[in-house]
Amino acid sequence: MPEPILNLKEVFKTYKSKGSLFGVRPAGLVKALQGINLEVMRGEIFGLVGESGSGKTTVGRLISNLESPAAGSVLLDGEEISNLHGRRLKAYRRRVQMIFQDPYQSLNPQLSIYESVVEPLVIHRIAVGRERMERVLEMIQTSGLSPPEAFANRYPHQLSGGQRQRVAIARAMVLKPDFLVADEPTSMLDASYSAKIFNIILEMRRRFGVAILFITHSLAAARYLCDRIAVIYKGRLMEVGTAEEVIHSPLHPYSQALIDALPKFGVSEGIPRYDTLLEVERDGADAAGCPFFVRCRKAHRTKCSREVPALEALKPGRYVACFFPGNGGGGDGTGL
Amino acid sequence: MKETSAEGKSGSGAGEVLLEVEDLIVGYRTKRGFMRAVDGVSFHVKKGLSLGLVGESGCGKTTVGMALMGLLPPNGEVKAGRILFKGEDLLKNTEEEMRRVRWKEIAMIFQAAMNALNPVQRVEKQIAEAILTHSPELSGKKVLRQVEGLFQMVNLPLDRMRDYPHQYSGGMKQRAIIAMALACNPELIIADEPTTALDVIVQHQILEETKALQKDLGISMIFISHDISIVADVCHDIGVMYAGQLVEYGSREEVFGDPRHYYTRALLESYPTLSGEKRDLVPIPGETPSLVDPPSGCRFCDRCSASVGECSMERPDWLEVSPTHRVLCGRCFST
Lengths: 336, 335
Prior knowledge:
The complex is a heterodimer.
Chain A: E1 4-17, E2 28-41, E3 45-49, H1 56-63, E4 71-76, E5 79-80, H2 86-95, E6 96-99, H3 113-123, H4 129-142, H5 148-152, H6 161-173, E7 179-183, H7 191-208, E8 211-216, H8 219-225, E9 228-233, E10 236-242, H9 243-248, H10 253-260, H11 303-306, E11 312-315, E12 318-320
Chain B: E1 17-30, E2 33-46, E3 50-54, H1 61-69, E4 76-85, E5 88-89, H2 95-101, E6 106-109, H3 123-134, H4 140-153, H5 170-182, E7 188-192, H6 200-217, E8 220-225, H7 228-234, E9 237-242, E10 245-251, H8 252-257, H9 262-269, E11 318-322, E12 325-328
Parallel strand pairs in B: 3-8, 3-9, 6-7, 7-8
Antiparallel strand pairs in B: 1-2, 1-4, 4-5, 9-10, 10-12, 11-12
């Protein structure tokens, strides 16, 4: 039995919005996450797939302890992380690392590559002298920057975007963390560099057994990298399953709409059409029901607008938050 | 939602040529010297069909678009070549003549177009202005009717005409920009990464609508993107660019069904797919060459799995795979 390393239990997160300058939009609360439950196993690559504003980055920030949840708990090896302080918080940071979307911003331009990668070891007082240096060079090499000596004394502006992201990975992995949050690490990069980053991530898992939360908007990238996938929409998980299950037999109408939206030539040939997305949103955006209700062709007028479907297991490991999962439907096909 | 497929045959037989670009060389004056961003690119666009220019950042695809519009930045310069639009060389035009061509005959949808709208003016007014600038004789009523027509064309609700841009979502702003590009009934639209910043579902809707409009109105289009799957979805003909050069050119079926240039092949192998067996992605090793001092031989040879000694010495020639499919690679017939 695989053993979980990270658990999110009924996690909620709200942000205060400032409202707009002339009061067109009033200040209020934005519900970024509404009851997220998920579990990541040791050594697993878990994909969190969603569109902008879905809350996927917020999940990553909560796990990295950069923010704390409004309610619910985040557990690493069964231990609640939100009330960690001092030495224990520092130990947590050593075990959980993060790589960000934009390698142009996440590296300090004044530090050489060596200085960037050695910094975590200095902060956590790991290894000294020659051993420290070897560890840094080895990690630069494992991140695909070879020979490492040639890169050690360069600065970020001398590297391409793909190379910078590899430095960011080396910096995160030099502590040999147990858990890595990778937030859209390739969305700013060209395809030929992305493939390299994907392969380095796989290599890191193979060599160090690190568990990874891979946050992405791309189902194809998630399929390539991930063991399991969760689809997130408006702060709720819609569907969880193995990567192949979610992509080849999606059960939630929203996941089905995501698959439909992919360009059909080449990358996704042979994938069926589900046609679950309403062309025009229906009324009921404020209704208390399913978050996807207003766009769902299959929705049932009363049931889906009044009640939020819970994320329930259809079979072990396969979860979906829909009253009418799969090919059945509550509506008559007209969307009403 | 309607699925429209890009129809029509590419090839020398079908369709009249609207735009012909010959040996275009465009560059930028930089501190390190003259950088040839586009180096000897030739292609044509037929009436009512679309050409996709695909390549990674820095390959020169946006520079091609800007040069066609005559909108290069101050340090940019067209060094050589011809841009024949309906038989007339645009590069010989004065700025005043060019202004008449721009928007009226050739319109452009820019990258990050959502920032191209004026935030303090109602969308209706901005589109009306685009029409009035080129047809000042029209009455206010006629212009308003045209704006309504454009809104319907791009699936924007008429009751949102008097909104300001900030009241629109990203997808709606992109639609407004498309409406503006269509405002003067251009014969050619250059779309530079028009959906890059959008979410997949909105992107899909806009691409489908763009395809339908292009087909219904018979507009020609140059579609610039880094994303192979989008270009393959939208365009009839494809030009693959690398380091300032076109390296492969042909119909969509030819370029993606039978890719011959090793860069095209490598690019296709570096994309993760959704269907079929999961295969290992093969990243392209190395980095793109400098365009200030480009290599004298094939520009891809340092990163190419099939290169031999002579590849780095001699500039490769174009080889014809078929009358409509050509490749800038000396070794494309060896496997």
